[in-house]
């Protein structure tokens, strides 16, 4: 497509832009039919729902909240929009930025266990990477006596709380990690462009519509392809939980303070996956979660599909044993499969100086003690 304004307006007016969007979305559906992806109707249904969720998130990101002149922090991954082993303990927020401008993030710290903010180059829609170009977390921040926070986001170093940007930075990501969602209070933050005068975003243009629609569908296609390929790479370590490639994790948007373990799992109806962490290091927090094939966290609204430093039961020697099974074994740290018989999984050490390995084994439910 050419980008001449008159050509774009013509495509929008005659419906060509919409047709191209629909054709691209149909093409994205082929990802769900990948050769190594599960072929049953249940997993396929989740796959197509996953695409619909990604599209919903993409439309919000690329069409509704894409103006770096008037950025807004929005929660783009939550109970019903999931991707990339989204952490059930997290609240994720993001905003569009442009390194030509400086920004101010301000608000209240709250009591959430971990607060980290990154500037990134998000290429999920075009290259499958999310490079971190700057990072600051609550341990480095100057915080006022009433919990007030002010952070300057810019390419040039600033006094006080400074979040660096780089050429190509196009988004801010905020991670809030809870240990106890009931009692911890989330940070309440806003972002604004420094020097912005009173005004409002311009009305929608044909060019913005076309760019937003195609950006959304490319985001859905690019994200689904990347994480489906990643899930396939876990097959050789089925029911094990080895360290992930940390450089790759960081290249697709991982938090610099997190050490990741990723793999796949598969259990018969009478089988149990036992995961043992012999040593829990000093750390900000840790957690384990169960995901489906498409690397979406399972439904944590209605099932116990994860455990963390706060919720876990510890053995007398300080170790932790996690039990993944279809039915309740009557033991602590039970993780529900929520109707799934296979998928992916993730363990995180967050803010730890060392990263002990994990032990796994599959046993029959009747033999578990």
Question: What can you see in these coordinates?
Answer:
The structure is a single chain. The chain has 369 residues and is of the alpha+beta class. The protein has three domains: 1-66 and 201-227; 68-197, Jelly Rolls (Sandwich), CATH 2.60.120; 234-367, Jelly Rolls (Sandwich). It has five helices and 17 strands. The strands form four sheets. A five-stranded antiparallel sheet has the order 1-2-8-4-5, with helices on one face. A hairpin with a 7-residue loop joins β4 (114-122) and β5. The chain is globular. 37% of the residues are buried. The mean pLDDT is 95.
Quick structural gist:
It is built from 5 helices and 17 strands. Helix 2 (16-28) runs parallel beside helix 4 (206-233).
CATH domain fold name of the largest domain: Jelly Rolls
Count of discrete alpha- or pi-helical segments spanning 4 or more residues = 5
β-strand number:
17
The gross shape turns out to be globular
Q: Gap between N and C termini, in Å?
A: 63 Å
Helix/strand-derived category reads alpha+beta
Count of the separate structural domains = 3
Keywords:
369 residues, alpha+beta, Jelly Rolls, 3 domains, 17 strands, 22% helix
How do the strands and helices of this protein lay out in sequence?
Elements: H1 5-14, H2 16-28, H3 41-64, E1 74-77, E2 90-96, E3 103-108, E4 114-122, E5 130-137, E6 148-154, E7 162-164, E8 171-177, E9 188-193, H4 206-233, H5 246-251, E10 258-266, E11 271-277, E12 285-291, E13 306-308, E14 320-325, E15 334-336, E16 342-350, E17 359-364
Parallel strand pairs: 6-7, 14-15
Antiparallel strand pairs: 1-2, 2-8, 3-6, 3-9, 4-5, 4-8, 10-16, 11-14, 11-17, 12-13, 12-16
